[in-house]
Amino acid sequence: MSFFNKILASVGIGSSKVDTKLAQSSIKVGEDVEGVVEVTGGSVEQAIEEIYLTINTNYQQEDDDRVVHKQAVISSIKLNEPFIIMPGETKTIPFQFKLPLDTPISAGSSKVWIQTGIDIKGSVDPTDRDIVTVLPNNLMDETLAVFNRLGFAMKKVKNEAASYKIRKRLPFIQEFELVPTGGTFYKKFDEVEVIFFPISETKMDILMEVDRRARGISGLFSEALDLDESIIRFSIQKEDLPRLQETIEKILVNHS
């Protein structure tokens, strides 16, 4: 190999390339992510120190009167031990891992992607980025379906920076904003905000903020002081699904 080729590879010209191929582009939280990483050698022999995948998402944080857009790493997975790749050679590294339960679902402004990185000794590190569609698990899906049957429609979904008093290990929470468009609770609430905290595949905590619609002078006074908002915490398990609608309906009635 020529000295000139080494110089080019050190700045990324003629260096190794990486391409991640996912077995599926839509994945439920808690399910397996499978695929392969293909590394193709460039014009010179190179030492691949490490190949890793990171699961990433975006969130927003309010800073005074402006919104700051940020990114967070949900999880990082190392795939290999160091190896040498020869010019033009292709190596395929298979992978399989579980998508963390606290990965935000792909809805509203929430995006999730898998970033592939390679550490190459003495060279610019190539990367690859793959957008994935993250779907809710059965507990989340059924909870949202219950609100739909009760006359609520999804207004907004966003990842928002949150205090450590509310959030878990990640610096943000995913908030589902629902508004009543019909049914028993129409005109009784301005909105209901729901946050999911999965504990396992069969158990989940739910934080629900109920914003009551102002009614009369006392209602307007309460709304001005934010006294019309109530925060409710409760847990559900797989065994609770047959009675979930009754449970949520009772909570809403008690806070309407």
Task: Explain the overall architecture.
With 256 residues, the protein is an alpha+beta fold. The protein has two domains: 3-135, Immunoglobulin-like; 138-254, no CATH class. The protein has helices spanning 3-10, 138-149, 216-224, 244-254; strands spanning 17-22, 26-28, 32-40, 46-63, 66-78, 83-85, 90-98, 112-120, 127-135, 152-161, 172-180, 189-200, 203-212, 229-237. Strands 2, 4, 5, 6, 8 and 9 form a six-stranded mixed beta sheet that branches. Strands 10-11-12-13-14 form a five-stranded antiparallel beta sheet, with helices on one face. Strands 1-3-7 form a three-stranded antiparallel beta sheet, with no helix packed on it. The longest helix has 12 residues, at 138-149. It comes from Metabacillus litoralis. This is Sporulation protein.
List the uncertain runs: 1-14, 214-228
Q: What is the N-to-C succession of helices and strands?
A: HEEEEEEEEEHEEEEHEH
Radius of gyration: 24 Å
Question: What sort of overall outline do the alpha carbons produce when their principal axes are compared?
Answer: elongated
Largest sheet: 6 strands, mixed
* CATH class category of the largest domain: Mainly Beta
Question: What is the helix fraction of residues, given as a range?
Answer: 10-25%
Total number of beta strands: 14
Termini separation comes to: 76 Å
Count of individual domains = 2
The helix-and-strand class reads alpha+beta
Q: What amount of the residues lies in strands?
A: over 45%
CATH topology description of the largest domain: Immunoglobulin-like
Provide mean pLDDT, rounded: 84
CATH architecture of the largest domain: Sandwich
Number of helices: 4
Pfam family, one: Spo0M
Protein name: Sporulation protein
Organism: Metabacillus litoralis
InterPro entries: Spore_0_M
